[in-house]
Amino acid sequence: MTRRPYRLVRVLTPVLAAGTLLTTAACSDDGGTDGSRDSGVTASQAAGKRHPPSPTTTLTTDRARTALITEADIEDDWTQVKDTEAENWHDSLLIGTVDVSGFLTAKAQAADCQRLLDSLFDDDLLGRPSGASELRGFEQGDSRLLYQVASYERTDPQDSLDWMANLPEKCDQFTVTDDGEQRTVQVVETTLPGVGDARAGLRVTVRGRTGGTEATLTLDVAAVRVGDDAITVTAGGLDGGENDSVEQAARLGTQRLKDVLAGKTPSPNPGEVQ
Length: 274
What we know:
This protein is α+β, with helices and mostly antiparallel strands. It has one domain (61-262): Protein Transport Mog1p, Chain A. It contains 7 helices and 10 strands. It has helices at residues 14-17, 43-48, 61-67, 83-87, 106-122, 157-170, 243-261, and strands at 79-80, 97-98, 133-140, 143-151, 173-178, 181-189, 198-210, 213-226, 229-237, 240-241. Strands 1, 2, 3, 4, 5, 6, 7, 8, 9 and 10 form a 10-stranded antiparallel beta sheet that branches. Helix 3 crosses helix 7 (243-261). The chain is globular and about 50 Å long. Mean pLDDT is 81; it is low at 1-45.
């Protein structure tokens, strides 16, 4: 994937020197009460099997906005930020050129790993939405959580989920270089609640120096497909990942999207996760 030339301008590097997150990317059952998960099902298995699309109405901009999660839908002390602030969250640790020499099938694998970093930076993990798209950001200390609801009716979000599910194998560990600085990236699979028609979860860890300072960025990532629509969640920062919050956002957020597409009003008080 070719980098967009404007992205360096959008990075707020001074924040890292202050010991906080530079700028961040973005990052069970089907609404039942027992909080159970799909036992033994990996992300690759869940994402790779194509299910018929769920019966839905068209996801309009208003419906996408209604389907966004709120502070009540996620754990801990997350605070919602202004939409304009969330839209400009980008982390400079994700900028870099993948070292092709570190791969057995160099060009293909390196391209997938480069696409991962680029899509995390640009907040388009499943590709550019072909229909309505809305996002919302939350912060907690130095951590950030970015949540997006989007329509992909003219593309196929399942292809992107399949791509995500294979990344822990293709991009297990690799090196990127930016301005002479080398960073090590690790990608592992994470388990998500058994919601939606298909899903995939990742933890991406970037270790290295930026601006002369050692740093480790950890992002937990989730994507869930509901028919031709999907939600994506990216959360974490320099203090570590936010897997519990990502899981809860995926579970309750998927139910919100399904309710909206069914013409229902999502509950303003989703309650505690069992």
